[in-house]
Amino acid sequence: MEKSLKIMKFGGSSVGTAEAIRQVAELVASEPEVARVLVVSAQQGMTDRLLQLATAPDDLPSLQHHIEAISSALKLDELPIIADLFNALQTDLATDDEGSGRLDQIAGYGERISAELIAAYLRSRGLNAVPIDARGMLRTDSRFTDARWLREPTLPLVRETLFPLLNRNMIPVVTGFIAADAEGRTTTLGRGGSDLTASILADCLDADLIEIWSDADGIMSADPRLIPTARQMHRLSYAEAVELSNFGGKILYSRTLVPAMQRHIPIVVRNTFNRENPGTRINGTGEANNFVVTQKKHVTAITISNPEMIAAVGYLAELFRIFREIQLSVDVVTVSEASVSVTLSALPADQLDTLRAALATLGDVTIRTEAAIVAIVSPLLADRQLFSTLLHELETAGIRPKMISYGNSAINLMLVVPEAQSDTAVQVLHEHLANLKTSREAA
Fold this sequence. Notes:
This protein has helices spanning 18-29, 46-53, 60-73, 80-93, 102-107, 109-124, 151-167, 193-205, 238-246, 254-263, 315-326, 349-359, 384-396, 422-442, and strands spanning 5-10, 35-40, 129-132, 171-175, 178-180, 186-188, 209-214, 219-220, 232-233, 235-237, 267-271, 280-283, 292-305, 333-335, 339-345, 364-377, 403-406, 412-418. The chain is of the alpha/beta class.
């Protein structure tokens, strides 16, 4: 294939209305000299509605009417495949075999409908588009709702399916989020699954670029709703993007970045509704004065204290065995001579009680709910004096972090603070870093 190849992923807001789909078509049509593979999400809110149908299917006619209205607005009145998909969905809703990945099967209809709808509209605009169900290519384990992709069986299937289409100047429109296990059962790729699909395809096809299209101009220095003066980051390193994705950044998820990072494929985050903005480019190098302050609310902080055992061989292994058995993911870990502290997403009371009882075998357990992680990602943190300055700024604002993690990478500082103070912490830190960036750029 002589043309350069890019993977264009469109999120839920980019495919959620007839007008948004028209914008997608304009984007795709604007670069005929480039080979394109589209990856599409379900319409915004669709996956949640589908999962609600799993227990309360009465909303199905309303959902079908919504899709048919969009199809009609796009002048695609004859799309029997949409009716076929809703008939199949109705059949799946009537089954109750949870062990077979029923929820994954149901959740995946959003992407399947999007792919059919968008491919049909592109064809109506004279573009040679074809919908592709990713379950025929992407292979995963059987960890339903959060499956892990398997590169060895996936690679040949992706190439056998997509290269012949690309060589005929066709535009594959691939379902994001869904895949299949070795037995052909539908699996889903978890949080950020459609982004991950795009990254997997870029890896398998050796693409030149991944574009993530949403309703945001790119990655900002903070949430603009909290910090109106937040600035757009024009270029980030892979390492910076990974740190952001792990601690509150919602534009990309860390699993998405791994295949692209391993193959050195650039990622550009862009706005479907503001094509003039170049977005944020993620590749091997960022900018020296970059900074992003983000937060993750609804966090639980747990401290296990046991002066006699903390240095014992295997203590930490036993601690994390407990989290693995209960299937809980830890965000931040700090270790002192007498205690270990961790954070994780807020848990229901019954699950928290189970965890407390299990951890009590290792020492005294203190649990703080209603906490938040405030994270700074910036090359500026390589200046170790900045660390103490930022803590002083927080202290002046009456904020004392309960946990601190200052990574060896020197680009990430994580602070656990009371949730009620996290917005203020972000504002204080962002103001100081913005002033520092301005002074350095003026020097």
